[in-house]
Structure formats: C-alpha cells, structure tokens
Amino acid sequence: xxxxxxxxxxxxxxxxxxxxxxxxxxxxxxxxxxxxxxxxxxxxxxxxxxxxxxxxxxxxxxxxxxxxxxxxxxxxxxxxxxxxxxxxxxxxxxxxxxxxxxxxxxxxxxxxxxxxxxxxxxxxxxxxxxxxxxxxxxxxxxxxxxxxxxxxxxxxxxxxxxxxxxxxxxxxxxxxxxxxxxxxxxxxxxxxxxxxxxxxxxxxxxxxxxxxxxxxxxxxxxxxxxxxxxxxxxxxxxxxxxxxxxxxxxxxxxxxxxxxxxxxxxxxxxxxxxxxxxxxxxxxxxxxxxxxxxxxxxxxxxxxxxxxxxxxxxxxxxxxxxxxxxxxxxxxxxxxxxxxxxxxxx
Length: 346
Hints:
alpha/beta
C-alpha cells in the first residue's frame, strides 16, 4: 500500500521558542507577563458542575460570554461566535471567504499562521507590504488586515484601508479593547468585514483557548457556525466560564487600563532607545506589545541583539528579511528597561 503525507500538510512551517535563553540574556521573544491579578483567584475555582463538563455546550458559545464580548467589541452578542482561540476564528474566516484556488491578500511581514492556514485551506497567497500602501483588490479578493499589526505595531482602520467589494478579515487579537480605538474600528464596520479576536493576549491566559469571530452579516456568521460544528463542536466550557467570570469583574477593566498605559510607556522607552542607537531603526509602533527593529547596515538583526544579550524573534519567522527582529515589551519593567539600555548602545 502506498501512503504519503498531503502536499499541503507537508509544506506547513512551524516555529517555537521552547529553548532556554542563557543566563544573562533578556528574553523578549514573546509575552512573559503574568495573568491579570483579577484572574488569579479564579484559576483555582472552575465553578462548573460535573453535568456541565460532561456535555457539549452550544456551538456558538456561552450566551452570556457572547453578550460580554459583544459589549466590549461594540456589537451585539448574536454577532459573536466563540471559538477555540483566535486561530480557529481565523481558520473559520478563511474557510468561509474563499474557495480552494482563490486568491487572498495577506500582509508581509505577518503572524506566520496567516499564510500557513491560508495554504492549508487551498488559497493562493498574494502579499502586500506593511508598512506600505493599502492593498488593491482585483475581482473582490479577500484581504486580511492585522491591527495592531504583528510584528510592527502599526494601526490600520477601515477609513484608510480597502473599502471596495470583497471580504476584509480584521485580526484584532493585539488590540487592548480599552479606550476609543476598538469603538472607532467597530463604528465603521460594514457587512463585508469580519473580526477575529483572541483572549490570550487580552487576559494573558493562552491556555484557556478562547477567542471569537465577529460578523455583522448573518449569512457569514451562520456559515462559520456550521463549519465550527464539524471542527471543534463547542469551545472549552471551563475556558468560556473562566473568561466570563474575569470579564464580568468590574476590576478587570481597571487593570486592563493600567496594563495598557504601562505598555505605552515601555513601548516609548524601547522606541527611544532604538532611535538613540547608531546601528538600528524601528517601525513607529502605535499599539500592541511589539517593536520591530531593523539593522541599518543590513546585518543579521537577531544576532546583533543576541550578542548584546537581548533575544527577540527573528524577522524571518514573519516572512521578513534577516536584518529584522521583533521585540516584545510584555515583560517586567526591569527587563524592558535593561533591554533598552543595551539596545541604545548598539
């Protein structure tokens, strides 16, 4: 019997950073911040009965959690589909906006899951550069927009992006949901806009695996729900219950506001340090937890910073050149400030 792995599966590229950073080096590869303080007491109190755990929940998700997420994002609860993390929301969106062989426009550099998932569902990928001019569609191709952009921290709004015919999938997983930014985005949503969101970044609970897809078009939401029925059926009930309890706690929003203000300060300090260095430049990040750095002479950015004891994620992970590296500010103040001191000397 002849067996082989499908070409699509064989072509999947994965990255991890489970290796240990040597002593004396600063780990700025990803979010190393603790869970929200308001969440910690709830982690040891699942609050679910045996009956609830021994049955599937609704495919669309817990109605109360959908309502809470809708209120945070600025839509109604019945426009929210709870998913198993943001990646499932992205997979559902890509599956529903195009057929195998169709073209999808993806940002570059970008979260590697965009391209890997698009190719898994059989789509033809065409890139557009970030920073750069908004992509120009032909024949209504779907576009994926990440805002704040991972890895650059750039903000894109409907007013400055493509507004012609065709679906736009907005990945807002790195948006704080605090202040006016999310309200400004959702106020301009059209029927051909789809949002995907992950609570992993917001609550710092990636193990809970809770995200959502938001669509104002009832047919799109119904299609995504049908697909999810045959994918994960219902998202984790303990994860949904935990997210519901945390998000309904009035103290959570106060802590989120404080956390975002702190990240704004740390982002500014790291950007100032890059600007003061002789050999590095950075994209002017406006939100999120990432700063994208490039070497002025075209040398290997990851190695340049690693030699100074600052370890980031190589730009090639995001389909960028070796002269780029992503640094994450979701660390302790001490680590980010020491990293800024070392970066400034380069």
